Amino acid sequence: MCADVIAVIKANAYGHGSVEIAKHLENNGVSHFAIATAGEGGELRRNGVKGFIQVFGSCVKEDIAVCQEFHLTPTVCCQEFLQHWSDWFHNNNNHSSSQEKPWVVIKVDCGMCRNGCQPEQLPELIQKCKDLHIPIHSAMTHFSQAWDDPEFTKKQLDLFLQTCRHLRSEGVKLHASNSAGIIQGFGIELDFIRPGIAIYGLPTDPSEETVNKFQSIGLKPALSWLAKPSLVKKLPPGSVVGYDQTYQCKKEEIIGTFSIGYADGYNRHLSTNGMISNISGDQYPVIGRVSMDAITVRLDSLDSNQVYYIMKDDYVSGHSLTKIAAELKTIPYEIGTSLSKRLPRVYI
Ligand code: PLP
After folding, report:
1. What is the CB-side half-sphere exposure of residue 142 using CA atoms within 13 A?
2. Are 324 and 267 in contact (CB under 8 A)?
3. Phi, psi of 43 (to 5 degrees)
4. Are the C-beta atoms of residues 110 and 141 closer than 8 Å to each other?
5. Which pLDDT tens digit goes with each residue over 191-227?
6. Residue of 142, 178, 179, 190 best suited for mutating to test ligand 1, as the one with most atoms within 8 Å of CB
7. What is the ipTM of this complex?
8. What angle in degrees, to the nearest 10, is found between the helix axes of 79-93 and 122-132?
9. C-beta of 54 in contact with ligand 1 (< 6 A)
10. Which residues pair with 182 in a beta bridge?
C-alpha cells in the first residue's frame, strides 16, 4: 500500500501562502497537513481548511486551548503534556474522565536529539495515553539528514521501527520521512510521508548534486516573484544612489526603484551581486543598498510598465531562489520562508 501524505505547510507554506496551498492540495486529494505552531493551525481553520492538521512543534500547555478549539493534533514528547491535554478536555467539556479525548501524535527521538521522547520512554508514554483515554493517531520520528550519511539515516529508521512497529497492531500509524528521506527511499513504506520543501519544487540545499536529484524526478520551483518598478528615472553622471551612498552613476543612467525590500524577504546582502531580469531574460544589477521597502536597479528602459523577475522559477538563473540561497550561503528554506506576508500572491 502507498503511504498517505502529510503536507508540510508551516511558515506560510515555506513562503508560498499556507491557506491557498492547503486549499489547492485539498482540492487535489490531500487531507493531512502539518504546521509548526498552534497559531498557524488556527489560521488554516479560520480560512476553511478542513483536513487533519498536526502541530509539529513540541506543544506546551499554553497551546492546548487553541489546539482543542480548532481540532489541531498536537505532537507530544512527554507525559506532562498528556496530563494537561486530558485535564483541559475534562475541565472544558464537562465530560467524565474516561471519555475519549482528541488524539495526539507521539514523537520519538531516534537520533536528531531535538524534540521527541527517548525511545526507552515510549512505553510509559503509551501507557499514560491508555490511562488517560487519549487515542494515538500516529508515532513519528524525524531524520537529521538523509543525503550524506545513509547509514545513519538507516540506523535512525531501524531504531524507530524497533521502538514503534508493534504499535501498528493497535491502529497507530507510523511516519518518518521528509523530502530528502522520501527521495532517498527511507520510510516510504510506512503509513505517511511528510514532504515539505519538495511540494514547492525547491531543493533542500542549492548544490548542483541536490538540484540534479530534484530535477531528475521532474520537480521544478513553483514560485516566481514578479514586479514592475514604482518609478524609473534618468540620473545624471555622479548621482549617488541609496543609503550609505554605496553606488555612484558613472554616466547618465536609468535607475528603476521597486517597492521591494528586506522587509519583504529580499535580503540586504543582495545589495552586492543582486540582479533581476526582464521577461526575455536580460539581466539588470541591483545597485545601492537594499533598503527596508525599496531596491534600486540599473535598467535600460524608462518603461515603468515593464514586468521584471525578482526571482525566477528555475534552479539555474542567478536570481532563482536556489541560486540566491547559494549566493547568501544559506538554504532555499530560509529564502522561501523570509518572503513576507505583505507580498501579494497570485496563483495560476
Ligand atoms: N517533518 C518534520 C517533523 C519537519 O519538521 C519537517 C520540516 O522541517 C518536515 C517533515 C518537512 O521537511 P522538508 O521540508 O525537508 O521536506
Report:
1. 19
2. yes
3. -65, -40
4. yes
5. 999 999 999 999 999 999 999 999 999 999 999 999 9
6. 178
7. 0.99
8. 10
9. no
10. none
